[in-house]
Write a structure and sequence with these properties.
The complex is a heterodimer of chains A (about 800) and B (about 450).
Chain A lengths: L1 H19 L4 H17 L29 H12 L13 H21 L9 E2 L2 H12 L5 H4 L21 H19 L6 E6 L18 E11 L3 E9 L14 E7 L2 E8 L19 H9 L5 E6 L2 E10 L15 H6 L9 E12 L6 H6 L10 H17 L5 H18 L1 H14 L1 H4 E2 L12 E3 L2 H12 L6 H8 L8 H11 L5 H10 L20 H20 L6 H4 L2 E4 L1 H7 L10 E4 L13 H6 L8 H12 L26 H4 L1 H5 L1 H15 L23 E2 L7 E2 H11 L1 H17 L8 H12 L5 H10 L1 H4 E3 L3
Antiparallel strand pairs in A: 1-10, 2-9, 3-8, 4-7, 4-9, 5-6, 5-8, 11-16, 12-13, 14-15
Helix pairs in contact in A: 1-2, 1-4, 3-4, 4-29, 7-13, 11-12, 11-13, 12-13, 15-16, 17-30, 18-19, 23-26, 28-29, 28-30, 29-30
Chain B lengths: L2 E2 L7 E4 L4 E4 L22 E7 L14 E2 L17 E8 L11 H11 L17 H9 L8 E4 L8 E3 L2 E2 H5 L3 E3 L2 E2 L6 H9 L7 H26 L4 H27 L6 E2 L9 H17 L5 E5 L18 H5 L5 H27 L1 E2 L2 E2 L4 E7 L14 E4 L10 E10 H11 L22
Parallel strand pairs in B: 4-13, 4-16, 6-18, 7-13
Antiparallel strand pairs in B: 1-12, 2-3, 5-18, 6-17, 8-9, 10-11, 14-15, 16-17
Helix pairs in contact in B: 4-7, 5-6, 7-9
Classes of the chains: A alpha+beta (about 800), B alpha/beta (about 450).
């Protein structure tokens, strides 16, 4: 301990040593010990001859007293040591206190070196991705568009983020899509649409329509859906409703009359009655593979044929609601098991309830003018009364648009260019056509499509310099909103007030309160946790007949509401793991075994059994997306935890790995745990799987769709115990949670690193580590609350500054 | 979609229920755009596949006599005018010995049609078949066109769910496979097909296209000069990035230039269809028109088209069949049901004949588009009541650029693998290096000779 004391004392003197590269006598003790430690634990593998992992730590190759000169290597060494990945299992391990002391000396030296020569990095020119483009259109033109329909998906980086400027490329095909998107968006925004479009909204046939399906549908309704639709102009539109059918086209649930209501912005505009005709129906569970009587066939296949009508609609976004009036009785009979798979596809289920399959809207059929839409109000900040005032008004309109779209004051040259396009369109089709043409030009401008941070004149090459307030404002809004700055943020930046004391903090807090900050859940958290994968999970319907679209949607919604609560209530990031509450509706509560929850509305519930639920790791979404369709996978779950929670992703498996055997050597059924024994026996596997599998085993009490269970697929009782080298054995969800919390710093650091990467729109590099450590140190004093982490990131060197080209 | 003949505009309006849709009338006298590039020595080759689901009424399909001068059977009557450009093939089987189990019979019909391998049960393993011949052909024929291939259908694109006991909907909803585990979704929305073919243009009308091209060109011109402003004030890596953008701009400008030159040549005037027409007939004709247009403009040379998915339960009240297609296909040899099924099959063949007629009337090089095409038209099942894969109802329509000698009914020994035909077709299309398709044994003979 005395030696450690000396070391610590010496630490304050390390910085000048490092900087001056002078081996001051006072420091030789510490650096001598560090060298000894490397020689003792590392260079057996990491020597000049073997160069394991491409690295030699021998004294003749690398100088421990001058870490700043090899920061990239030393950051890597520090991370491997901190996460316990090195020395590897089976080799002598460092005493924790010794390792900690070494690490704190190493990191202090690295921080000092970085402080003397700060490197904030140079994010590449950043193209707006599909989400940012759609959000920018929403904020610029008050127009909700479906980005998926207009633009192709963006590539993602190694952590699944689609806002990484390094991977956001541009191709001729993409530029063509931008050109065509610009034309469509301009036309929608101005309401100059003439040709009718046909849009169909489909409801998945696996969505059980037995409850009120949306908050936007009336109480006492059953099934159907409510969705927003943008009517581009005032005019007539036709609506066509199709009901759920079997694979053979028979409408389901025709035994009794049911009333279907269609609503526009909650007002009922049409009702239909379906079912209850006196036709001789087929027997129950008739599968329609051969024909029944023609009268029935005609009735069953044509029952929804007349569900069409035309109506006048005012332009703008309206909510369409389609639902049945709920019948308040239950059929008297033995309750039948839920049908799934083939049976569900074919059985006519004559005595069930009908459901809505799709709603088709076509129009405008008779356009009656552009109407008064939010988009037009946003664009037409002036209206020319006389022809000679048109160009002046156009100039005002285009200056305002360019200002918002380009995230900076519009220059005379900008406006001149746009007026050129205005003139072009004006000559062809009048004032509004001119504005539309100029708007098209705005939307493919590099000033809009790209975030470009221009180099400053007279900066010293390679030196860090602060961003302008305008650049900072854009970084802020794309971080917190995945969109362009609003007028208030832009104004503050233009006044040069953004860096005034307290102002940045005020803006961040204001922006986090704004509904647009949902982008942090939808884009940051959903991509970090791979939540988008829940959309494509297909649990085997024969093994999990209870998995339907309602459950999938409930999983998605639960995690979304949970994450939203974390941000809006400004919780500590550790609450992602420890929360003793979650959000459920009746369907999900039943799935989780939570009593007394009724109805389709989601609400917060307290969880009182931390063994079974609590935090992200007990949520159906995560548990399902880390499973195979027919069974759980401790490997996938372990890998997910290593990657996303502990930040130590395992390397990819070696090539030519054979599949695990289904049966034991004597042909007996084996549990997943038994089958995975192979991973421990084979040294080619065990290196990584010894870290991965045990974490997953702890979650074995949850089946492939997150249901609590005590026996596995093979019928054996669940063994949810796990053990890792260098950690106490753990058991089940609660044990796993304790284990992860014992590595709290590693977890928080993983979150912070991903958040920083998302904030910067680039990968986090070794030179960001000192800034990351500062972020973590400072956020810790606020209990690692989200706002603290976000604010520290916003104030960090890589967010505030930029390196000049060297 | 509104298609008007330039000299004599015809426009027929179809009154849907509550909707107005224009019935397409393609001006087929406009020559295909490949004409200049092709010579008799190096003809352009094209492949089409048109698939009918749920089998066939074989009594009304198989000609009663063989060889040249065969008697045209009832179902194929609408194709009589093109007799000299078609081959009816009998005796081909798609049932590998030993007979596989009864499950997944419909999945087998559609999956084997162009792959000659059976589908794997998807409840116990992943979806798997083999690359289909259209995709093998697209690897070569697609190298010169904007789209390597086009996959279109009348019914939905959903590849999830279970559509045949234990078999994924992927098997019954597509016939095209890019690879053993990559079933290709088939697009059924004409608006989306049009957009794939013609990008953002809402019309093929020359004036409209030119106006759009010119607008795009001036936007791009002004954008490139703006990029120039940036280039001086950003780092080298960013310059490379913006150069990427600039390259994209120039690439499109080049394409615009080509398109402007091309637009001097007449194209049928086609407006972008608003969506899926309400009636089956209008939808089918529109999809055929788009295929014709794609060949005519040489945007692709390989198209597969499913007139319905296997197991389809569509009803056809407009021709007096109120029972579903699939239920009717299990006719149990009841004469009334058989007559109904035959109505459905004949209806499909009539719609197909509409397409063949257009292809035949479209000049292409020294002949017509039909002369330079090979269309595999038929079904993956013969007697639907028995789910039979024996003696499949298949025809080859088109001259195959001289590689097909039509006007005949060829009867092969019973049990000849369908794969042999697929192999021979690739051969005639000039696709080299394929020696085997599924369970094929050799190339089917006599397609070119007597």
């Amino acid at each position: 301990m005395r030696k450690l004391g000396t070391v610590l004392k010496c630490l304050r003197l390390v910085a000048p040593c490092v900087l001056l590269l002078a081996a001051a006598a006072a420091c030789s003790g510490a650096s001598g010990a560090d060298r000894k430690l490397l020689d003792q634990y590392c260079i057996n593998c990491h020597n000049a001859r073997l160069k394991t992992g491409g690295l030699s730590l021998e004294a003749r190759d690398i100088d421990i007293t001058a870490v700043g000169a090899n920061a990239e290597v030393w950051e890597r060494v520090g991370r491997k040591l901190r996460s316990g990945q090195m020395p590897p299992a089976g080799l002598p391990r460092l005493d924790q206190a010794v390792a900690d002391a070494f690490l704190s000396r190493l990191e202090d030296s690295l921080d000092q070196a970085a402080a003397a020569a700060p490197n904030p990095g140079r994010p590449a020119v950043h193209r707006l991705n599909r989400t940012e483009y759609a959000n920018a259109i929403r904020d610029l033109l008050a127009l909700d568009i479906d980005g998926h329909a207009l633009l192709p998906a963006d590539d993602t980086d190694q952590h699944g983020f689609d806002n990484n400027s390094e991977v956001l490329s541009i191709s001729p095909a993409l530029l063509e899509r931008y050109l065509s998107a610009a034309r469509k968006v301009s036309r929608l925004a101005l309401g100059s649409v003439k040709a009718p479009a046909i849009d169909t909204f489909e409801i998945s046939k696996l969505l059980m329509q037995d409850d009120r399906e949306s908050e936007r549908l009336p109480f006492g309704s059953r099934g159907g859906a409510a969705f927003p639709y943008y009517f581009p102009v005032d005019g007539e539109y036709s609506f066509k409703i199709r009901l759920q059918k079997t694979l053979y086209n028979a409408v389901r649930g025709l035994a009794d009359p049911n009333t279907l209501e269609v609503r526009l912005d909650r007002e009922r505009i049409k009702t239909f009655t379906v079912g209850g005709a006196k036709v001789n129906p087929p027997p129950a569970s008739f599968a329609g593979t051969i024909s029944w009587n023609p009268e029935w066939e005609k009735y069953a296949t044509q029952a929804d044929a007349g569900m069409e009508f035309r109506i006048k609609v005012k332009a703008g976004t309206r909510t369409i609601g389609v639902s049945f009036v709920k019948q308040s009785w239950e059929p008297e009979d033995v309750q039948q098991p839920r049908r799934s798979g083939w049976g569900y596809e074919t059985d006519e289920m004559y005595d069930g309830s009908p459901g809505v399959e799709s709603v088709t809207i076509e129009g405008p059929l008779a356009a009656a003018g552009a109407g008064d839409t939010a988009s037009r109000r946003k664009i037409f900040v002036c209206q020319p009364e006389k022809a000679e005032r048109e160009r002046g008004c156009a100039k005002t309109i285009l200056t305002t648009l360019a200002h918002r779209a380009y995230r900076r004051p519009a220059t005379a040259a900008d406006v001149e260019t746009l007026l050129g396009f205005y003139d072009l369109g004006r000559a062809d089709g009048g004032f509004e056509a001119g504005i539309e043409m100029a708007l098209q030009r705005v939307l493919v401008s590099p000033d809009f499509l790209f975030r470009i941070e221009l180099d400053k004149d007279n900066e010293v090459p390679g030196k860090a310099y602060p961003l302008t307030d305008l650049e900072l404002a854009s970084r802020l809004s794309f971080f917190l909103w995945s969109s362009i700055p609003d007028d208030e943020l832009l104004a503050a930046a233009e006044r040069g007030a953004l860096r005034k004391p307290g102002e940045l903090e005020r803006q961040v807090k204001r922006m986090l309160r704004d509904p647009r900050s949902r982008a942090l859940v939808d884009n940051f958290a959903a991509q970090w946790l791979q939540l988008r994968d829940i959309r494509s999970a297909i649990p085997d319907p024969d093994l999990f007949p209870e998995f339907d679209e309602n459950l999938r949607e409930a999983f998605r919604r639960e995690t979304e509401l949970f994450l939203q609560a974390q941000f809006s209530e400004d919780r500590s990031v550790t609450e992602l793991l420890t929360a003793n509450y979650t959000f459920v509706n009746e369907r999900l509560a039943r799935h989780y075994g939570i009593p007394n929850v009724y109805g389709s509305r989601f609400r917060r519930v307290a969880l009182n059994n931390p063994e079974q639920r609590g935090g992200l790791l007990g949520q159906g979404s995560i548990l399902t997306l880390t499973s195979y369709p027919n069974r759980t996978s401790p490997v996938l779950r372990g890998k997910w935890l290593l990657e996303n929670i502990l930040g130590t992703p395992p390397p990819p498996p070696p090539p030519n790995v054979p599949a695990l055997r289904d049966k034991g050597p004597e042909g007996q059924r084996q549990s997943v745990r038994e089958r995975l024994q192979e991973h421990r026996k084979n040294p080619a596997c065990s290196g990584c799987h010894a870290q991965m599998d045990p974490l997953g085993f702890a979650l074995e009490n949850f089946d492939a769709i997150g249901t609590w269970r005590t026996a596995d697929e093979s019928g054996s009782p669940i063994d949810a115990s796990g053990s890792l080298t260098g950690a106490a054995d753990f058991q089940g969800l609660a044990g796993l949670r304790t284990l992860l919390l014992s590595r709290r710093e590693q977890f928080v650091s993983t979150v912070a690193e991903r958040l920083l990467s998302f904030a910067l729109g680039r990968s986090v590099e070794y030179y960001d580590r000192p800034a990351l450590r500062k972020i973590l140190r400072d956020a810790k004093t606020s209990d690692d609350r989200w706002s603290a982490l976000i604010l520290e990131i916003v104030q960090s060197l890589p967010f505030q500054m930029r390196k000049a080209e060297s | 979609m509104i298609i008007a003949k330039r000299a004599l505009p015809r426009r027929t309006i179809l009154r849907g229920i509550g909707t107005t849709l224009a019935l397409p009338l393609l001006d087929a006298m406009v020559p295909a755009l490949t004409a200049a590039a092709q010579t008799a020595a190096k003809p352009v080759r094209r492949l089409g596949v048109v698939y009918i689901p749920n089998g066939m009424v074989m009594q009304k399909w198989t000609p009663s006599s063989d060889g040249v001068g065969f008697e045209m059977p009832e179902t194929l009557k609408p194709l009589e005018p093109f007799r000299s450009k078609m081959l009816v093939l009998s005796g081909l089987n798609n049932t590998p010995p030993p007979l596989d189990s009864g499950a997944g019979v419909h999945a087998r019909a559609s999956t084997r049609f162009l792959t000659a391998v059976p589908p794997k049960r998807s409840d116990t393993s992943a979806v798997e078949a083999a690359i289909s011949i259209d995709q093998l052909a697209a690897r070569m024929l697609g190298s010169e066109t904007q789209l390597a291939s086009l996959e279109v259908a009348i019914e939905g694109r959903d590849l999830a769910g279970s559509c045949d006991i234990g078999f994924s909907c992927a098997y019954t909803n597509t016939i095209s496979w890019r690879g053993p585990t990559t079933p290709l979704p088939m697009e059924n929305d004409p608006r989306a097909v049009f957009e794939r073919l013609f990008g953002g243009s809402e019309s093929t009308d020359r004036a409209a296209r030119l106006a759009r091209l010119q607008a795009n060109r001036s936007i791009l011109d002004s954008v490139s000069s703006r990029i120039g402003d940036f280039q001086r004030r950003i780092g080298s890596r960013d310059r490379a990035k913006l150069a990427e953008y600039l390259d994209a701009v120039r690439d499109i400008e080049r394409r615009i230039q080509n398109a402007e030159q091309q637009s001097a040549r007449e194209l049928p005037v086609v407006e972008q269809p608003p969506g899926i027409p309400a009636s089956f007939e209008a939808h089918a004709r529109l999809m055929f028109d788009l295929q014709l247009l794609a060949y005519q403009t040489d945007l692709t040379r390989v198209i597969t088209f499913m007139m319905g998915r296997e197991l389809s339960g569509r009803t056809f009240p407009q021709i007096g069949v109120v029972e579903s297609h699939h239920a009717t296909s299990h006719h149990q040899n009841d004469p009334v049901k058989l007559a109904n099924l035959q109505k459905i099959k004949a209806h499909h063949a009539e719609l197909f004949a509409y397409y063949v007629e257009k292809l035949n009337a479209t000049p292409d090089g020294d002949g017509s588009l039909l002369d330079h095409m090979m269309i595999l038209f038929g079904a993956g099942m013969s007697d639907s009541n028995a789910h039979s894969g024996n003696n499949l109802p298949v025809t080859i329509v088109g001259g195959g650029s001289g590689s097909i000698r039509g006007g005949r009914h060829l009867k092969y020994p019973p049990g000849t693998p369908m794969g042999n035909l697929l192999l021979a077709m690739l051969d005639k299309l000039g696709v080299p290096g394929v020696e085997r398709i599924g369970d094929s044994t050799r190339r089917l003979e006599h397609l070119s000779d007597i």
